[in-house]
Specification:
heterodimer; A: alpha/beta; globular; B: alpha+beta; 2 helices; 32% strand
């Protein structure tokens, strides 16, 4: 494999970020359409460490929006995503958990992170992450969620909105995958919003 | 008493203008407010409650002029 330096990888980054990305640890809750896109975008800009959590394996129906290849089908998503990220950013530290996140394990798994990216499919899992500790988890950490990225209606209806001091939500807050399907373009827009909010927070935290 | 009320996500509440002051009973909890607003029981368990920009338990008692936000995320990811 060809060798590069960390300085080369981050040469085109905003100079405001400088060493801040080297200190950031971000948790990715779900490595599907949102999570795989957010993780790869953060890896590309030189984030220090990601904690990837997903209980699932790659399925052919994932390929319309998730950052996996046909050869990945049947692999654990966390393992396939780790392989992809290492090909882009050899300097990153990755911790993977092939497990279902619950209110019992989320605090332990994400103990080290400053920011959690909520990238689940199911409403029940999204709600679990906010409600797990009656808000206590997010007194010190930030949560960047997604809600409303289905279908193919206007790109411009996807926004980043502040829900509380430490919780943000990206999406149109309307469209639901059960009714409108879910496809790469709007999933990637929402994932882009989430990633950019993470970068803004990293700049603010460090 | 009056509270400032906002709802987001999959919630559709008939007859209530979003982001407006509404009248509620004294000492009402967020959970009771959801029932008063006829939010379906199966949805209530997934609704997050924010009071004055902080995530709070649904058993929190509301006070005059509280900013109350209810959020039910949509699915997909």
């Amino acid at each position: 494999m060809k060798k590069i330096t960390y300085a080369q990888l981050t040469a085109r980054n905003s100079s405001k970020l400088k060493s801040k990305l080297k200190k950031a640890v971000v948790g990715i809750a779900g490595c599907g359409g949102l999570g795989s896109n957010v993780a790869i975008a953060l890896a590309r800009i030189g984030i220090c460490k990601l904690i990837l959590v997903d209980f699932d394996v790659v399925d052919p129906t994932n390929l319309n929006r998730q950052q996996y290849f046909v050869e990945d089908i049947g692999k654990r998503k966390v393992d396939a995503l780790l392989e992809k990220i290492k090909l882009i950013n050899p300097f990153i530290t990755l911790e993977t958990h092939h497990i279902k996140l619950t209110k019992k394990n989320v605090q332990t798994i994400f103990k080290e992170v400053q920011i959690i990216v909520e990238a689940f499919d199911q409403v029940s899992e999204k709600a679990m992450l906010i409600n797990a500790f009656g808000g206590k988890l997010f007194e010190e950490k930030y949560l960047v969620m997604a809600s409303g990225l289905a279908g193919f209606s206007s790109s411009n209806s996807i926004k980043t909105k502040k829900l509380s001091k430490n919780i943000f939500v990206c999406g149109d807050n309307k469209t639901d995958f059960m009714e409108e399907g879910v496809m790469a373009p709007r999933v990637m827009i929402a994932a882009g919003h989430q990633t950019n909010k993470v970068v803004e927070l990293i700049d603010k935290i460090f | 008493m009056k509270i400032f009320f906002e709802y987001l996500g999959l919630l559709h509440i008939e007859g209530i203008k979003n982001k407006s002051f509404i009248d509620v009973k004294e000492n009402i909890t967020a959970a009771e407010l959801m029932t008063e607003l006829q939010i379906r029981k199966e949805h209530q368990k997934f609704v997050s409650v924010f009071i004055n920009d902080k995530e709070k338990s649904r058993n929190t008692v509301l006070n005059e002029n509280d900013k109350v936000k209810l959020f039910l995320p949509t699915g997909g990811g």
